[in-house]
Write the structure tokens for this entry.
Amino acid sequence: MWGNPESFARTSAVVVCLFGLTVAVGLASLLIGFVALDATAVMEALFGVGPESTQMIVSEIRLPRTLMGVLAGGALGMSGAALQGLFRNPLADPGIIGISASAGLGAVATLHFGLAPDFALAVPLMAMATASVSTLILFVVAMRDSSALTLILVGIGVSSLAVAFTSLVINFSSNPFALNDMVLWLLGSLANRSFTDIALSAPFIVTGLLLMYASAGGLRVLSLGEAVAESMGVSQRKLRGLIVLGSSMAVGASVAVCGTIGFVGLVAPHMVRPFLGNDPARILWPSAFAGAILVTFADILVRTFSSGQELKLGVLTSLVGAPFFLFLVVKTRRMMR
Amino acid sequence: MSIAVTNLSVSLSGQPILLNAELELRRGELLGLIGPNGSGKSTLIRAMLGLQKGDGGQITIDELDRDAYGRRELARLVAYLPQDHTVHWPLSVEATVALGREPHLGPFGKRSKADWQIVEHVMHDMDITAFKGRSVRTLSAGERARVLLARAIAVQAPYLLADEPTAALDPRHQLTVMKLLHGLTRQGVGTLVVVHDLPLAAQFCDRVCLLHEGRIMAAGRPADVLNDDNIAAAYGVETVRIRVGDASLIVPVGVKVP
């Protein structure tokens, strides 16, 4: 009924639909919140008309929150698709290469040393710095003549080390307020994100997305294995380098600002494969849109169902994502036919 | 014009695999690479492609050193079918064959009408059009082997290096594939095939090259290379001759006790 899943027309149609959905969910995210606003009021506020309080809520609170959700979701979604393609494994996730954990370490350390109150951007900047260090380690590994398996193992190692140091910091944190901040930060949230956060992370996220997209042709040929890909003119080093650098930049920047939002990178590519087939290159942008939709939608749910203590976004995505992961493990054999 | 391998030595983790190998693959010929397991056939092919570094020696393609070519240029010049037939994603047969056009595509990876015509044509020749919409993962080993050979042919490179393209095939498809490869060479493609089936090699190849313990033991016309002494020395088997029309086929019948 839809034509060939690998056809260009179908891909274009799916991308247009996903874009439309992203815009729709984004608009819904502007409408829904603690203060009930109707569509007219939101539109007016966006164009600087109407009561000042409404303008404040829409432009200063909900708009940056929504945009950050779209950016972070896009970063996680495409990173998941690119890493699944690189590792040729439908269970790969940006968490696997240890970037999220390293960014978390930077953030937690900043909160522990009490740098956050003096300088608002201290947390995201430090998180990005630590993410960069692990990016560098992974990039060096990727550029050497090692296999994708080595890269996964180094990623797991980096991740474990970052988690160990994070635990160490939390362990010795005597200040209950800082401790609370740390735990909350690690849970992941889009609440109270400002345009400064967007300005800080967007350049890295966009560059990361473009780097990953530059690997599309290589990822497609990699479906036939490294030897064939190499014989078809695809440098394995360059391919690994592009994806490691791209996904680390995108995920590092989004985790630095929003904390860890788990499983989005795992789930997003699986949402688009039924419509587009299994070509790892074809699903890169659609996965980015799917990730954006997932995160924005989850954030709406978080706002809707929270009373008093807000349910954290990362907690919700993990609650939904982890069972999905288990389901995938069981179903992978069938799905991979 | 040819791919010429001169004095090539390769070792893997200190173990010598190829020793001063010499080989020439000319455009328009079907060259059979034969030899027992572990004699270095796959390593020779991988070295020709630049996938395996050599300890010494030279490889030229059309009189130019292989390293003088850019990656994509080389990819359009030499197509490769490895022994390993893994396809990591459940792609359709058509999409898999179309991957062969990748070295010809522009920066946005859009395939032209001409690309799809080539894909159609190759699928027809390989007798796989009937299941072009199916996932490669659901195919039998023989069907998959044909799909992957079709992918390599779809590159339309002037040289094709195929590592055991007939290994998983039934007799009918073995003959179809060898005929097709032979047909390609008549269109000017230089084709190197690794084959274990000696009668098949004798029947179709213009020349054969016998590799034994990393050295080229003999090279030339099949009738000259595939003699009882060479086969006995390389494979350690006893053979008999079967006359079929004008041809005499060599058939291994027993293991030689040293």
